[in-house]
Amino acid sequence: MATTPVHAIATGVLQELDLVRESLAAEYEIIEELGRGGMAMVYRAKDRQLEREVAVKVLPFSLAFDTEFVERFQREARTAAQLEHPNIISIYRVGRSGRVIYFVMKFLRGGSLSSVLGARKKLTPPEIRRLLSEAGGALGYAAQRGIVHRDIKPDNIMFDEFGQSVLTDFGIAKAASGQKLTGTGMSIGTPHYMSPEQARAQAIDGRSDIYSLGVVAYQCLTGAVPYDGEDSFSIGYKHITEPIPVPSLVTADERRIFEVIKRMLMKDPFDRFQSCEELVASFRGQPIAAPGAVRSSVATFVGSAAAVAGSAQARGDGAGLPPIVSQPTAPLDSPLVNRRLTPLERRDMPRRVADRSMAMRPSTSSWAWLWVLLAVLGGAGGALYYYKARGFAPGTGDPPTDSAPAADST
To answer: Is residue 151 annotated as a catalytic residue, yes or no?
Structure first.
């Protein structure tokens, strides 16, 4: 009987699962696959020695021959392991066993923000403030240590069993003093959530993450991302050139949170909140959902069938609205939302206006980022085609040798 493409894919997945199980059998019992994407496969497992559930993230075998992808994968684990924060994923171990390059992390039982939005479409303003407070706290902590995440999106915001949000996937995070994996003039990230400077492949800092978190907040408020298009090229162009779409807002609280989101989404980083601490302070005194409220509102479909970092998502029906901690409401013209410029900022304004005008002026060089973006997308597609065409799969050879030990505890 002829083998169909679907049957061939299913067979390949089972072979990969068997190989992972065999390679890690001495220390981990692989229970099931939670999800997979272009950069990783994620499994639910049991640590045999500690008798606890963990998540094991494995580099796809077709990428284990590429030293750059291996470095990016291992750097994700190293970066997250350096950040000890309740809202950042905990990494337990990094290792290699035969062909299997992996790291072990906390198993998150609460699903992803993407799952929540898939069930409910929107969040209430108090829930958005809770999300911004927790995710913003994590990003602020990372920024203080020179780490920029660069890929903030609903898939990378997970929930633990207590409903607390947890940032995951530091695969393209970059330390200010560290070596970057992308070449000069190359942008990397998820187009719908990229900051304008990220889409331009310019130097970025923590304010870029604030922009991306603002896109997430906009999506939570309206049910859609602010900029969409047929391809990454058009989406990136809109992030750079188009004004922020103004949604239809019903309540005063929706308008209030939108003022915060607008400032997060300013094109010029200097016009945004300059730190996550300033962002969180901007809605102090306003209604904020109780801890765990966002996840608990859909607890009926996450529960034990929780997802973990990566593409794994629990799906199902949502429950009722979560409880809200009532607090006095701040006016729309909160000084931290629409604050006045300091004398030093006013004195510096002519230079900033001139810089912005030069940046937006049409010229041959100003279109360079567009061609760079196209080149990145074309290169990614070409790489995938190359690996598939060469037939790299489990059992075809060994990945490049690393000087690191077979497994290191973090």
So the answer is: yes
